[in-house]
Amino acid sequence: MVKKHICSGLIERVHQPLARSDWVAKKIKGHLLDQPKIKAKDIVKDVQHDHRVRLSYIQAWRGKEVAREMIDESHKQQYHDLPLYIEKIRRTNPGTEVRIHIDEGKFKRLFITYRPCIMGFVSECRPLIGINGTFLKGKYQGILLCTIAVDANNGFFLLALAAVENENYQSWYWFLSILSELLNRYLNLPALTIISHRQKSLPEAIEKCFPTCFPSFCMQHMGKNFKGFMKRSANTEVLLMLFWKAARKATIGGFEKIMFNIQCADLEAYDWIKNIPPKFWADAYFSGSRYSHLTSNVAEYFNAWILSALEKPIITMCQEIKIQLMARFEEKRELGNTWSGMLVLKAQ
Question: What pLDDT digit, counting tens, does each position of 74-122 carry?
Fold first, then answer.
């Protein structure tokens, strides 16, 4: 008889050959949502660490497949539950605008702008928005379109978003026409500056939905296209720097001087740039105000901010974005309470 107990209270369990796939699936479902490409060998390590159960590789693989089926079913069920979710949003968030487009009984598009978002934009933000789309990474994929404003302290501010089937003229027009309808309710709203990429369908939809706006092409996007066009040139970086310099020149004379330098350096580069009307990208010719924003990077920042939500089922995604927004609004409110002056920090 052993008189002294020497076993640890955290005994590591041995291999469990009878661990069922459904048990493994329930334990790893959260991991799979966060890391859709997680490998079976990593699942073995996670289960051993979290539950002190050692799985074989095949048990982990089978559990992953069952978990994936559970998640896929969750994606499908959430599309089925969307009408109830939309009704709940409308009931609990008065003034929030939600639209859904169903085609032949199948989900096609969802538009959401929360009341604090649209009211905050109208009353506190500059009349400038960046527009962009990013891929949804769940089972049914699709595109998340967004319009992002810039607040007084140069932070991004969500105006509206939409989950759509593809990034094309029809989806952009559907999204922007609803946004235009909502903003037209505010009669004293100044004309918008809208920064977007040059994809053919988007500028057309912007012109149709916002005929009085000042459209601007994103210099970051044009710069990437320019580098792709000039990839064989040894002077690409220098020419790109001149391209940006031309965009920032405030006078026509200054702009034309830079363009002349580009022409002398590389006629092919000059012709490529000259083919894009400067009224869409050069400060010297721009009719509105871009408030020193030559890119739609605010929309890119937003996309990166919600990256983890893009892999989730549609209702879960919307909820996660909403929770992040609520936390951001509270964080901004608390930050504002620490300011002693009338101006935001960026303006001091």
Answer: 888 899 999 999 999 999 999 999 999 999 888 999 999 999 999 999 9
Nearest one of 237, 233, 221 to 268, comparing CA atoms: 233
CA distance 280 to 287: 9
Q: Rounded to 5 degrees, what angle do the CA atoms 190, 174, 145 make?
A: 80
- The proportion of the chain whose per-residue pLDDT surpasses 70, expressed as a percent, equals 92
**Matching residue, tokens 């990034």:** 167
Do residues 178 and 251 share a domain? Answer: no
Position 28 in a domain? yes
User: What percent of the chain lies above the pLDDT cut of 90?
Assistant: 64
Structure tokens at 331: 């964080």
What is the rounded distance in angstroms from the CA atom of residue 117 to the CA atom of residue 344? 19
Last residue of a domain, one of 44, 60, 80: 80
Distance of alpha carbon 217 from alpha carbon 166, whole angstroms: 21
The string of pLDDT tens digits covering residues 111-125 is 999 999 999 999 989
Cβ neighbors of 323 (< 8 A, separation 6 or more) are none
Q: Give helix 314-337 / helix 115-124 axis angle, nearest 10°.
A: 40
Instruction: Indicate if 288 and 315 belong to the same structural domain.
Output: no
Helix (H) / strand (E) element for 345: namely none
> Are residues 102 and 29 part of one domain?
no
What is residue 73's predicted lDDT score, i.e. its pLDDT?
Answer: 73
Q: In this predicted model, what pLDDT tens digit does every residue of 283-322 receive, in sequence order? A: 999 999 999 999 999 999 999 999 989 988 899 899 999 9
CB-based contacts of 247, cutoff 8 Å, min separation 6: 219, 281, 282, 283, 294
In this structure, the answer to whether residues 288 and 319 fall within a common structural domain is no
Q: Is residue 15 part of a domain?
A: no
C-alpha distances (whole Å) from 249 to each of 124, 194, 255, 312, 320 are: 28, 20, 5, 44, 42
Considering the entire predicted model, what is its pTM? 0.81
Provide the domain limits for residue 154. 82-218+295-348
Query: Cβ atoms within 10 A of the Cβ of 21, count?
Result: 18
Statement to judge: residues 141 and 288 lie in one domain: no
Cα separation, 199 vs 217, in Å, equals 10
